[in-house]
Design brief:
Number of strands: 17
Radius of gyration: 38 Å
Structural class: alpha+beta
Number of helices: 25
Distance between the termini: 14 Å
């Protein structure tokens, strides 16, 4: 879908009449002559025959990406709206062209508003788009037209800028009408700064999607078309503002910011933005810090850091990642250009002399953690180069990070056949506790036999009595332990179904109350439903990685782990 404008049109209406003042581009394509002009017999009616043979085809007003089929007078009549429609969204579809604008009423400077309205001027900057443009694209262009109207309204009030510019444009049109054929638009472009601003706006929207103007060399006007600006680093993917909003809603304090441009180049953007807090945050920026740490180091609130992050992401100045650390696991992005003729190969070699991009990326054919790549025997400069190369590949979306997700599968259908076979063997063999009791009983019997042979019949009854007490004590202790175990197990898993509790009780780790308590708590909070990765669980529950990994190992019979990307930032890590 093409999101660039077809044309930008400026019309005005005041007490002197309605007029189209400027349009860009203004190279009008001449209509080709139809075959009817070559008819030999002036009395033939080929048009009637065509209408009878086939239905009329849809007329197109776009020829080679230029707006055609509309005269200046027609466009002026279309876009000079009534006063009731001013300061509102204006949208009109004609054939395959959609026009969108925000008509604005201006109070002319040095003139008092009169009853006949001679002190009022309507200014309308109209964007011609393809009719199939999405709702979000139309909304963005309406916002730009509205901003332009606000700037012109302010400048007219301040110094009469709009009156001066429209007078120059009107004079150019009148001179061409009086003196003969010529290009009034070309003369206007050379004399009027407003026309030059419209031309630059059109070129910026078509080329980059970023508009940075200074109207009348005074008022800055900045605008971002996200559907266009994200294409340079997302390889043609259309990023809608709604997609960015969803990503920002899923932003968490453990995420990190990754600038897509060198920090030195961000100074121009921060000065244009005019936000001192943005400058302060960028001064403390590091892809190794999460947003919470960045907020503390910048002395800003976390919510404000979120807002600044959303601002940078919207303007395609940054993306969202997980902070770089030794446990991060990376793999080649499915859409990464890995061929030898990729322009990124040369760009990578210029940034990292002596390294080859294809060879470096081949090391991530399988999921590889940063800790596996870091050799403690390497020189610190080599480790720094490794980190910088990963940052570079993340900036160009060549790598994506994999996170470990957990799925709770307590039933037999969710367990491996190997585990079920082991459980059957376990049920067929005597339990460890019963074996211990039996061993103690056999040892006591042996002692009894030895005592009988050595001491005679007089000590038999005493030895037998001692053995009986030992067996009774151990049996009572075992029964008490089993009862206590069942009590806390039943209490911790009270709301679990019977089938699930049966599977969980077979796990030896359930004998430890701390492990079972943590397992039950995480299950109840639905962390084991495949929607939360390990890093998120660690943050939300204040757990150490080793503590969580040990729990996963102990309950591996009912917990399944798998690795995939974080859906919260998948839009920026794996473009389609």
């Amino acid at each position: 879908m093409e999101v660039s404008p077809i044309s930008i049109i400026l019309v005005k209406s005041d007490s002197k009449g309605d007029r189209l003042l400027f349009r860009y581009p203004f190279h009008i394509q001449k209509n080709r002559e139809t075959s009817s002009s070559q008819r030999k017999n002036p009395y033939t009616l080929p048009i009637t025959e065509d209408l009878l043979q086939s239905p009329a085809q849809l007329c197109s007003n776009i020829n080679r990406e230029n707006l055609t089929g509309f005269t200046d007078e027609v466009l002026s009549s279309l876009f000079v709206v009534k006063k009731e429609l001013c300061n509102k969204k204006f949208e009109l579809k004609v054939n395959d062209v959609r026009f969108v604008s925000h008509p604005t009423l201006l109070q002319l400077r040095n003139k008092q508003e009169k009853e006949d309205g001679s002190g009022i001027m309507l200014v309308n900057i109209v964007f011609a788009l393809q009719a199939l443009a999405s709702h979000s694209v139309v909304k963005c262009y309406h916002d730009l037209s509205k901003r332009m109207g606000i700037v012109l309204k302010y400048e007219e009030k301040r110094c009469g800028y709009v009156s001066e510019q429209t007078q120059l444009m009107t004079t150019a049109h009148d001179d061409i009408y009086t003196n003969g054929p010529g290009s009034a638009f070309q003369i206007i472009l050379e004399k009027c700064s407003l026309a030059s601003n419209i031309k630059k706006m059109y070129e910026d929207l078509c080329n980059t999607g970023l508009v940075n103007l200074r109207i009348n060399k005074w008022i800055p006007l900045s605008f971002c078309l996200p559907q266009k600006v994200h294409q340079w680093h997302m390889r043609g993917k259309i990023v809608e503002p709604e997609d960015i909003d969803r990503c920002m809603n899923a932003l968490r304090p453990y995420h990190s910011l990754l600038l897509l441009h060198p920090l030195q180049q961000m100074n121009d953007f921060s000065s244009l933005d005019g936000s001192p807090s943005l400058v302060r945050m960028l001064s403390q920026y590091s892809p190794l810090k999460n947003l919470q740490t960045l907020a503390v180091d910048s002395d800003l609130t976390l919510s404000h850091v979120f807002e600044l992050t959303a601002h940078l992401v919207y303007w395609a100045k940054a993306t969202v990642i997980f902070p770089l650390c030794s446990t991060n696991k990376y793999v080649i992005s499915p859409n990464a250009p890995v061929h030898l003729n990729s322009p990124l190969v040369e760009k990578f070699s210029d940034t990292f002399p002596g390294l080859n991009l294809v060879r470096v990326m081949s090391e991530y054919s399988l999921p590889t953690s940063l800790g596996q790549k870091c050799n403690p025997l390497c020189h610190p400069s080599q480790q720094s180069q490794l980190v910088q190369s990963i940052i570079w590949m993340l900036q160009h979306h060549l790598l994506l990070q994999l996170h470990t997700y957990i799925q709770y599968m307590p039933t037999e259908n969710g367990q491996l056949r190997r585990n079920m076979d082991e459980n059957k063997k376990h049920l067929a063999s005597p339990s460890p506790r019963s074996s211990t009791v039996m061993s103690n009983y056999q040892q006591t019997s042996n002692d009894y036999s030895r005592a009988e042979s050595e001491s005679g019949a007089s000590t038999v009854s005493e030895t037998l009595e001692v053995a009986s007490k030992i067996v009774n004590l151990e049996s009572a202790s075992f029964a008490s332990t089993e009862e206590d175990k069942q009590d806390y197990q039943e209490e911790l898993l009270l709301d679990f179904p019977d089938e699930e509790r049966t599977s969980i009780f077979k796990i030896p780790a359930t004998n430890t109350p701390e492990d079972l308590k943590l397992f039950a708590r995480l299950c109840r909070k639905e962390y084991f439903q495949g929607n939360h990765h390990i890093e998120e669980i660690m943050y939300l529950e204040n757990l150490r990685r080793s503590q969580l990994l040990q729990l996963l190992d102990k309950f591996r019979d009912v917990l399944i782990t798998y690795e995939t990307e974080d859906p919260a930032i998948a839009m920026f890590s794996c473009p389609s």
